[in-house]
Structures are given as structure tokens and as C-alpha cells.
Amino acid sequence: MTGFLDYVPGSSVLHRLDPLTKLVLSLGICVAAFVSDDLIFLLVLIALDILLGVLGGVFQKALRLLSGLLKLSVFLFLLQVLFVRSGTVLFELGILKITLDGLFVGARLVLRLTAATLPLQLLLSVTQLSDLSGVLVQRLFVPYKYAFTLTTAIRFIPVFAAEMSGIIEAQTARGVEFDTKNPVKKIGLILPLCVPLLISSVGKIHESAAAAELRGFTLRTRESQSKRYVFVPADYAFLIFTVLLIAAGILF
Amino acid sequence: MIEIHGLSFRYADADRDALQNIELTVPDGDFLGIIGPSGAGKTTLVHSICGLVPHRRGGDFYGSVTVDGMDTVETELTDLARVVGTVLQDVDSQMVAASVDDELRFGLENFGVPKDEIEPRMAEALGAAGISDLRGRVIGSLSGGQKQRVAIAAILALRPKILVLDEPTGELDPAVSEQIFRILREMNERYGMTVVVVEQKIMLLSSYAKRLAVLNGGRLEIAGPVREVLKESGRLEEIGVNCPRVVTLSRHIRDLTGGKIAATVEEAEALVREVLR
Ligand SMILES: Nc1ncnc2c1ncn2[C@@H]1O[C@H](COP(=O)(O)OP(=O)(O)OP(=O)(O)O)[C@@H](O)[C@H]1O
Ligand SMILES: [Mg+2]
């Protein structure tokens, strides 16, 4: 099984698009999600994310992320609902007060978060990291060093996650109970583990930089990559679509 | 050829030398195994050969290391890398790409290998590492042994004169470890590549390497042809390098056969037959 950020090999329309188009499209959806305040429009964006996931053959992965986001969403939603105190009061009990504004703000936050997270996952699912750094370097003139840093950070997320669960497992074996339901207690248990994780991460990143250098990293220039990227008509279509999407986001 | 003279190295924040007065020559075409307990300085020695020490590891460096005529202190890391291909101890952190193909392409592109040569070189290296079937795979989905072979293939594609590996079989099971060493032997015998490999399993090392170097506490304790080094089984045991059972057995056999030593199970078997006859 591949991780939720891993590339899924395939030959769908999305896989064949120019990496730059995919980058613009996914960032465009994020922008649209942030400039629009309309709940219906946000729902349309989520539907679009899912549709694109189906197009790219990574629907299952999108669902997994969605279900992962659900827990966080419920938490954020409740937080907003409880803290927003203005607007028409729907329900009141002691200091507890639920307002229409609260529901609206909560829903908007959750939908926006979902609409903006899915396209980023989609981008990584249908684009190889080398293509991503490739277009950044070739097309957008980003120095290779920075493009490499970005893709390395993305690649290391699952490695660190594995390391973290390794540490947690080791601590569990020593009798620390991580499966506590109390979130405050859980954070109290996990926080101290971040220090060893940070130390080992810095070590790994150093090692990684050394390994890259031993394979000629410093010699790499914009011309080094053998692969070249070209736009096809589908790319222009998707780019125009992205512009329209952002415009719609501003309108609604 | 690798020539190491009077090499001492102390890491910037350490209170003792990681390497002490090392004298070692590795001729072209050699297959040298480095062995020693944890903290003996094996990684530090390997890093001194590829140039990470002292170029990327701060500390006090004394003596000299010459690789293919280049003094490692005076030569740029990248220029050393054209001659010495290095596989580091931690396989995960030396992966630079997300897919097998990109992992191999990285070094080839960096060193400016002509574009029409990249494809055949990739195919050749993957073939040599026995992983042609891993083409197009995502690295995150590979097993430890597969990743290790991808790391080796990525170096083989660069066709280094000298191949240096730091515990390439560290977390692998015996069968996969054998496969890795077979690749190394093939490179050494067929292409005359000089191989320097750090390995904890003395049994495995003795059946593939031509010579052994035993490190302990930063000192080079014993160095020489495998057979000679294995003769010193008393000292090896003292250092804490696990002596293969066959060596302990053959020590007894030696007394019965008048000085004959077995380095592999097959040889031991032959000697036992001889004794029993
Ligand atoms: N970056 C560093 N900074 C300070 N001291 C270090 C550093 N790396 C290694 N050392 C120390 O130098 C000595 C030799 O370490 P080295 O990593 O070369 O041993 P090793 O034989 O490779 O061990 P292992 O089998 O555990 O990989 C050890 O005492 C170690 O603590
Ligand atoms: Mg080591």
C-alpha cells in the first residue's frame, strides 16, 4: 500500500497533463476556496476535487484523506460553533450559546479546509516529484536547490511519520499508554517525543544532503534534466478552466 | 588505488579520536572487507575515503588519504565522487528521488552523461543489481533489500572505479545479504572494480572479500588476506568480532591437519572429511 502523499503511476488525462498545468490547477482550486465565502460554491469545489480524483484514478486515496479530515473537521466545527457568539441565537443553556453565525462560520471553515487540501493531495498523486521539481526549475526558473528542498521535504513526511510511530511503539512497549482518550493528556505524551524526532530528522537531512552531493548535486544546472516539458491543447483547456474557477470564486 | 597514511581524525565535539594513525593501502581490483564492533570507526574510515571526512564533517584531520592519485583534502567532493561511488549506511536518507528511474537518472544527469547514453546505462545498472523488474516503481513501496539494491544500482550507473559501501546488508536477512555480496563480487571480478565494504557479519565477509581490515576503538588492529586474518581467531574474539563457528572449529582442525585453515563452510567440510579419513 502506498502512503497518502505518494505518486500513483497511471496514464489518465491528469497523469498526461504538463506538471505545470497540474500545479496551476491545484493551486487555483486552493485560491478559489480561499477567496469564496459561498458554502454552495465550496461544495462545488469539493465535488470538483472528487471528480478530478476519479479522472486521475485516485478516488480511493481521496476518500481516505476525506475520512482522515473528518475527525479534524468535527473538532474545528465544534470549536467555531461554541466560540462564535454573534448572530441569531438558536440555542442557549448557561454559557453555552449556539448561533446561526457560528454554524455558518464553522461550516465555511470545514468546507474550505477540505476543498483546499484535496487538490494538493491530488497533485502529488498524479505528478511525479521529479516532474514537479523539473517544471519549477525549467519553467519557473526556481533554483534547483530550492526545488530539491521542497520535494525532499514532501518525500520525508512518510519517513518521519514511520519514525514517529516507531518511537511511539517503543514507548508503548515500556508501558506508556498512548491510546488515552483525553486529548490534552495525549498531547502531553507526544510532545516530548518531538525532540528526539527532530534530532533524528536533522541527522537524516544532513545525511541526505551528503548523499546527494556524492552524486553530483552541486553540478546540477537548469539544463541537467534530460526530460523536457511541452504544453498540449488539453493543458491550455485546463489553464483557462483554472482562471474561470478563480474568477467564479471571487464573484461568489 | 587508495593510500591512507598516518590518518587520525577527531570529530569537532568529541573527546577522543574516531580514527588513530591508520595505515592502509587498497590496490586496484581489491575486495576489502572492513569489520569491527560498533563505534570502531568504520563509517569514519569510509567517509575519509569518499571525502565526507573532512569536507562535510568538522574535526581535526591528520595524515593523508589519496584516492586514485588525488589527495582527498585538496580535491573537491564532487571530483572525488567521479572516481569513488559511495553507498552510505542509512539507505532511506540517501534516496534523492521518489521513483526508481529518477533515482538512477539523478547522478547520470548531474555528471553530464550524454542524454542518449542515460537510458542504456540505467538498464545496465539495474540489470547488474538484478532489479530490472523494479523499473517505474515508487521507492516508498519497496522492501529494504530492494531499496538497498536501488541505492547500489544508482552508484553502479555512474561506473566508479572504486565502490565503497557502509553496511549495505545491515537490516537485511541472510539470503538477501548474499545477493548483495554476489553483486559486489561480480563487479569486482568482471569489471575489476575496487570494492571496499563495511560488514558486521564476518562469515559473509570472509566468503566474498579478498582481504580484511579489523578496526577497534579507532585503531586498525589487523589487516591482510582473509585467511591470514582469520588465523588470529583469538584476537578477533577479544575484539568482539563474532568469529564464525567454522573458524573456531577449524582452529581445532588446524592442529590435527598441520596448519590448514578453512575460510568457508565448504572448505571446512573438506578438511573435516580429511581429518576423519
Ligand atoms: N558526527 C559525529 N560527531 C561526533 N562524534 C562522532 C560522529 N560520528 C561518529 N562519532 C564518534 O566516532 C566514533 C566512531 O564512529 P563511527 O560511526 O565511525 O563508528 P562505526 O564503526 O561506523 O559504528 P557503527 O557500527 O555503529 O556504524 C564513535 O565513538 C562515534 O561516537
Ligand atoms: Mg557505521
Give a brief outline of the structure:
The complex is a heterodimer of chains A (about 250) and B (about 280). Chain A has about 250 residues and is mostly helical. Chain A is built from ten helices and two strands, in the order H-H-H-H-E-E-H-H-H-H-H-H.
Topology order of chain A in helix (H) and strand (E) letters? HHHHEEHHHHHH
Q: Return Rg of chain B in Å.
A: 20 Å
**What count of structural domains of chain A?**
2
Please, what is the average pLDDT of chain B?
90
CATH class of chain B: Alpha Beta
Q: Counting H and I runs of at least 4 residues, what is the number of helices of chain B?
A: 12
Looking across the biggest beta sheet of chain A, what order are the strands in? Answer: 1-2
Largest beta sheet: strand ordering of chain B:
6-7-8-3-9-10
Distance between the termini of chain A: 40 Å
* Known CATH architecture of chain B: 3-Layer(aba) Sandwich
What structural category do the secondary elements of chain A indicate?
A: mainly alpha
Number of strands of chain A: 2
Can you walk me through this structure?
The complex is a heterodimer of chains A (252) and B (277). Helix content of chain A is 71%, strand content 4%. By secondary structure, chain A is mainly alpha-helical. In chain A, strands 1-2 form a two-stranded antiparallel sheet. In chain A, β1 (89-93) and β2 form a beta hairpin. In chain A, α3 (39-55) runs antiparallel to α4 (59-83), α3 (39-55) runs parallel beside α5 and α6 (129-138) runs antiparallel to α7. In chain A, 31% of the residues are buried. Chain B is α/β, with parallel strands linked by helices. In chain B, 43% of the residues lie in helices and 22% in strands. Chain B has helices spanning 42-50, 52-55, 77-81, 100-110, 115-128, 144-156, 174-191, 202-208, 226-231, 233-239, 245-257, 265-276; strands at residues 2-11, 19-26, 31-35, 59-67, 70-71, 84-87, 162-166, 194-198, 211-216, 219-225. Chain B has a six-stranded mixed β-sheet with strand order 6-7-8-3-9-10, with helices on both faces. The interface between A and B is medium-sized, with 32 and 34 residues. The complex binds adenosine-5'-triphosphate (ATP) and magnesium ion. The site of magnesium ion has 4 residues of chain B, from α1.
